[in-house]
Amino acid sequence: MKRAVQTMEHFIFWSRWLQAPLYLGLIAAQGVYVYQFMHELAHLVSKAGELSETEVMLIVLGLIDVVMIANLLIMVIIGGYETFVSRLDAIEGHPDQPEWLSHVNAGVLKVKLAVALISISSIHLLRTFINAPQISDRVVMIQIAIHLAFLVSAIAIAWTDKIMMQTLAIQHQNH
Questions:
Q1: Which pTM value belongs to this model?
Q2: What are the extents of the domains in the chain?
């Protein structure tokens, strides 16, 4: 019986590798964002003298949006893989190793993702405000409500993580 339980536990532990193809898929998705960025950048450069200041600003905000989503993907790919699948031993001590990776855990990753989503939502909201005359008031209000929901969620996630860390610190002191 003990051997069967150990085999099952090894299999359960091995199952984390089923996530690896998901991270590879996110890398492919990032490639799509690189293509999107280059396409938008080429459009901006090719139409440089023909675009109004507002149009340029909207395109640049679109580029910033793509970069922020790419940053979010990197956090999920690297942080998620490191947290849930396996350590990235190949980059240990590498001069380009992201500083945040040394203290990443599921809680930190959730907070970073929430902040990234708020930043992306802020860019979308700014684009909406710049383009407000062409957008209905209902759409603007819905986007504001979604942004506020992201803010409240991020605060709740950060607060919950803080409480959990304080609880762990207290338990650690008592042992």
A1: 0.75
A2: 1-88, 105-175
